[in-house]
Amino acid sequence: MAKSVLVDITKCVGCGSCAVACKLWNSLKWDQSKPVNGEKAETSAENWTVVRLHQVPKEREKVWRFTKQQCLHCEEPACASACFARAIVKTEQGPVIYRASLCVGCRYCMLACPFEIPKYEWDKVFPQVHKCQMCPERIENGESPACVAACPTGALKYGERSLLLQEARRCLSSNSNYIKHIYGEKEAGGTSWLYISDTDFAALGFRTGVTSRPLPDYTYSILKLTPAVALGWGAVLTGLYAYNRRRKEIAGETKEKKREKR
Amino acid sequence: MQKKWHFRMTPVRAVLLCLSLLAVVLAVYRLVFGLGSATNLNDRWPWGLWIGFDVLTGVALAGGGYSTCLLVHVLRINKFKPIVRSAMLTSLIGYLLVMGGLFLDIGRWFNFWAPFVSWGYHSVLFEVFWCVSIYTLIQTLEFGEIATEKVGRSWHGFFKKIMPVLFIVGIVLPTLHQSSLGSLYVIEVGKLYPLWWSMLLPLFFLMSSFFVGPAMVVVETTLAGKAHGHQVETSVLQSLVKVSGSVMLVYLILKIADLFYRHKAGLVLAGNFEGYMFLLEMLAGIIIPLIICFTPGLRSTKGGLLAFSLLVVAGVIINRMNVVFTGMSRYMGGSYFPSFIEWAVSIGLISAGVLAYLFIVENFNILSEEPRVKEIAH
Question: A72: buried, middle or exposed (CB in 10 Å: 19+, 13-18, 0-12)?
């Protein structure tokens, strides 16, 4: 079954343990100029997850909130549907993974992603696309992703998506402090990572207004017409070709007959 | 048997040759040192000039081949015969350049064959990739009929025989991938500015690639007339332009209807950058050409025909640039401006295309329909 992570933003203290655990587990390079937590933290080829500090308004005062950012592992990922070499695929257990051996480097996944997640190794001769893989080996062994295992405050919860959704709903209904929205429940057709928060998601840098229709649906609704268009158009052209050739032949014959009569 | 090859060198051609050679050197640099060091692309702008201009615009401008092929070989409209070979040759060269540009733009070029064995058939790009590859092959085979008039003559009969199949497949494939290039941006829902994002994008890309075909033919013919003294009657070009204009009229109506249907028509006059660019695209590229096309006094002159064609070509270029850059910039943020290498390679590719065209026109029978028995003395 599809595994998920529920992020409770009210419980995150911005310690950055998750980002450190991610770096260690995935052997990602450290770069002082690209911090993994704080106000300037941004995901990049070497920063698969970051904890970003936001100062947001809440009840007439400003409060600090921390958002853990990483790939949301969509239920129906646009990046995987955009990849023409199947270098990005979604596994049965939920993670959306990247297979460099098949990647051509077209970067269409980067354009397709509704959350700006895939990043590129621009400084390499043969760059790879990098993003959070949701630690698929760990999940296969029955463990939680490295970031979840490292979280000291319980802000990250790992489990079945349906159970986590139930729990999120319970939180929202029992505690009026929360915004009545589970980010990731419907965004882009649903994601494996779910967020609940006590402050406005847009102010926290989340992209709001994302379509709830899975993105691959849009292109597939057009793409599925291809065989019909190819065959239909091919048949029409063949018909026109034969018809017009025959017409020319008949026109030629009548000309000859007229000449013979003379 | 006439087997002498000749290529006249002129100052303009020498410049083109230098530009092409520079592009070759820079292309090698890019392949050896990577995309990051050769281009200004970044995580916010993963697609730049090479995809936007060399591929998306290039494929559209090279569309003159399939539209003319449809008119001459399938519908058998004989008066368009004098331009068919030239139009199809330009198309072939255009596609070869697109393939070249695409190859330079992929980051892991040693993996270029992956989509042939690992089928991501749910991707629009998969369709584009297969169609463009096969269509380039088809066009090369179509050129076989012309080539075997001069070299490998024993194959000429074979090529003549397979032409009907090539013609039909060679119209179906571009129909599919010209529209698919538009479908590529359908997945940018909520990102591409609403003036351009539409479920009809594939249809808009297909139609514009069709009506820009005749315009390209007129531009080429005008240039060829200057360079090779090959004159095509204005009446032929006029009819061609009328075909183009009719498709454009339908395109314009669809475009307006689509904006109202999506309740986005107000954005045209929003007074922002996107609004102005959209107006420029529609006024210069569609509405003014339509006026020229349907005013007999303007259409019947050489100047009018050329103005129409240059505007339509410019309009399609602006349209593709608007989809790739203008329409995406509000969402993407950040900044991108092509590097010197990106410019030089794009310009060099076009120069190489022009040289290839000139060489083939001067060595094969392209500009006149009947096979030339004797070569014109040079």
Answer: buried
